[in-house]
UniProtKB/TrEMBL annotation:
GO BP, one annotated term: cell wall assembly
E.C. number: 2.7.8.-
Subcellular location: Cell membrane
Residue intervals annotated with topology Extracellular: 39-330
Region of interest: Disordered: 309-330
Protein name: Polyisoprenyl-teichoic acid--peptidoglycan teichoic acid transferase TagU
Taxonomic source organism: Pontibacillus halophilus JSM 076056 = DSM 19796
Class of this enzyme: transferase
């Protein structure tokens, strides 16, 4: 009887020992994991704070309330992405302007590039000018106001990327792989047709070429989107704190946005599904020389078409069904 009891106690002791070891390992993993994610979170928070540059109008109580209602009601939101070449003693130009509308209800994105030479009215300026000059005249605030005025839609958020830091971002993720549509040479580099690998400097040159592209500005912005998407895909696969920290350092130095941390969390929670369907549009315009300067003149009917596409995309599924019902009843 005593021997059985002794064996039983011995087994219990072993079980406790095993449970203690397993629990200790689990706790260690939890602490390591918690430390990892805490470190990432702190780095993300610091980067977001560094990136956060509100527009002048964002301080308005009315603007804040309107934006809160849009996010709360999960309405479609509009973004403006500006790719800017800013160099020493130069105000820079917004060489890349990409409009994107995210609709969480239909889980879709409508996206198009606004050609840099588009002939538009810039608020507060006499006459018309190239749309990318708005940045030189009044920075991000005037760029946003100009696009809002031109497309007749609100821009809820913007992101400005310094293209001079573009190569640093690609280097931080270890280069990117993209599918190139045709062979070309630029900045001393050769870009073959098909799948190609790019380091930071190559990616910047690949994204800048436009004069030898049969699609001009449209082709250039398409290549920029490819590089950005490839870099984002690589970031998702990272499991190294060091790599993520390097990327965050580059982002903090080269990106500005009026998104704050809570708004970013909201977008991740309620708008992430919009990536399931991405529709791209293109502007159709005519190249014209006005006062010996080349502009892209977009006819009114083409601009109306683009505005109609934005309005249609921004509707909820219910609104779309109601609109279809009204048309059928007629």
């Amino acid at each position: 009887m005593e021997m059985r009891s002794h064996k039983h106690r011995k087994k219990m002791s072993r079980r406790k020992k095993v449970m203690w070891i397993v629990s200790s390992i689990a706790l260690a993993l939890l602490l390591i994991g918690g430390g990892y994610f805490l470190h990432i979170y702190m780095n993300v928070q610091e980067t977001v704070n560094e990136m956060h540059k509100p527009l002048d109008r964002d301080t308005s109580l009315e603007q804040k309330e309107q934006l809160e209602n849009v996010l709360k009601n999960k309405e479609a939101i509009n973004f403006l992405l500006l790719g800017v070449d800013e160099r020493t003693n130069d105000d820079g130009r917004s060489d890349t302007m990409i409009f994107a509308s995210l609709n969480p209800d239909t889980e879709s994105v409508l996206m198009f590039s606004i050609p840099r030479d588009t002939y538009v009215t810039i608020p507060g300026r006499e006459g018309k000018d190239k749309i990318n000059h708005a940045y030189a005249f009044g920075g991000v605030d005037l760029s946003v106001a100009t696009v809002e005025n031109y497309l007749d839609v609100p821009i809820h958020f913007y992101s400005k990327v310094n293209m001079e830091g573009f190569s640093d971002g690609v280097e931080a993720v270890g280069g990117v792989t993209v599918q190139n549509d045709f062979y070309f040479e630029y900045d001393g580099y050769q870009f073959n047709e098909g799948e190609i690998e790019l380091n930071g400097d190559q990616a910047l040159s690949y994204s800048r070429m436009r004069y030898d592209d049969p699609r001009g500005d449209f082709g250039r912005t398409e290549r920029q989107r490819k590089v950005i998407q490839a870099a984002l895909d690589k970031m998702v696969s990272f499991n190294s704190v060091g790599k993520i920290t390097n990327v965050l350092d580059v982002v903090g130095d080269n990106v500005q946005t009026n998104l704050d941390m809570s708004q970013m969390r909201n977008l991740l929670s309620n708008y992430a599904g919009a990536r399931k369907s991405i529709e791209s549009l293109e502007f159709n315009g005519n190249g014209q020389r006005i006062n010996n300067i080349w502009y892209l003149v977009v006819p009114d009917e083409e601009l109306n078409r683009i505005q109609g596409e934005i309005e249609s995309h921004s509707q909820t599924g219910t609104e779309t069904e109601n609109a279809s019902g009204d048309q059928n009843s007629e």
